[in-house]
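#lab-general

N.A. 3:47 PM
ok so I finally got the sequence cleaned up, no stray characters, all 478 residues accounted for. can someone with queue access submit it? mine expired

B.Y. 3:52 PM
send it over

N.A. 3:53 PM
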Amino acid sequence: MLQGNSEGNLEMDKIRHLLKEYIETERKIQILEVNNPVTVFYVKKSQLDQIDINIEEKMKNIESLKQNLHFNSTNRSSKTRSGTRGTSNRRKFERSVHEVLINMGDKIFGQEEQEILASTNKLEIALTELEMHHQEKVLLGNDVAQLVTILSEMSEEYKKQDYILSELGLDENFQTATSDEESELVDLESARITISEIFERWREARNELLEASSQFSMVLVNIEESSKTPTIETPIVSTNGRGQYEIGEEIRDRLVSIWQALHNVQFLVGRDLPYCTDTELPILEKAMTYLFIDLRTHERRKHATNCYCAFQRRTLALLAWVEKTIEVVIQPILALKQEEVDEKTKLLSQLRVKNLYNKFPNLDWDKLHNIEKKTIFQNDLIQDIKNMEVFDIYSKLDAASRKIMFDFNYNYLAKLPDKTILIGGIRKLTSEQREKTVPPVQKIPNASERAKRVTRMASIDNLAYLLVEIDTNFSDDG
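B.Y. 4:20 PM
back already:
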């Protein structure tokens, strides 16, 4: 173990070498931590786990819908003449929405025909949802895999730092601060991590709602296009050469995407949503189910258009509410908590510098007070604040959605969530998810580890400045 105050120039050269290694390792860690990978990992992993649950539930739902279709087709066939009973009727009933529409032609649908078409469409909606779940699982899986790689690299760099501190004989030095101060910093850092995850979840929710609002605008464009085709059959096409069924299928896919986005928002924020409540969302689900019936007549199409316009406004109101919550509630809490962490870190750093002075009394410690220096290490805990860029929500919207948003009076939005309830709800949600999530690497830094690391960084900064010739460019990059 190195003893800086007794081994002479050779020993001090070795200390300088180790400190340079520590600085280089710290720079790698800061690059890896730029986008807050620990928090993002847990958010993405929780979404991936939820997708698995959704897929399992949707597969059960599909089997139930298939059984209902088979049961209804069997009952229907028993009412026909004996010569038409059997598999032919079942096959006819179990065809795709397109085949059912072609078979029924342009005749006016009675209640029985409407239910046949709606039930068939409901099954295809479920199959579309399942396909989208699988696509989303692939994307999230890739994100999680990349984050696992980053966390693994971080783990290796942490091990290098621990080894260097051991070689320097400083690992014991960083345990000498008062336990009360250390405990308080751990509590502050734990709270900061929780709020950081809230911020990440609500930011993801905002992205989901931006996508949903864009899809709603396209739905309304598609419905207008469908009004120019007098029939649902493919040979009759709109002015741009598309059949009405093809347009309807595109509308359905967009509505399924919106439906999933709204449920993703519910999961991410971990609470009931204003404007798109559990009692209101089934209305959208019913509209999807009867979509192809609505496209057949002017009156039904007009009714559907009014329904989608109303939900578009609700989605945009929800987006405004989420954005206002981020701006007014979450970001100020995170900024305040960051200030508290920084103050406590500074105090602990000062305590530890005193211990460094005792270990290396021959160094010119007065030099630190006479030189205005730039820190070698950028405090990684301020990264969340840096990431809270000014977000221009209007620039992310399409023209139709932007016009609606401009008309909103933000003072009359639904009541914003209370910060205590917000934090409490996320803590419960994250603790439940942590229990289900097996860390992909051995060392994902918790609050205690991060608190220890950031204070020792600040302390070593002073020692390294006295012993190591620091590249000016590196200090600027910090």
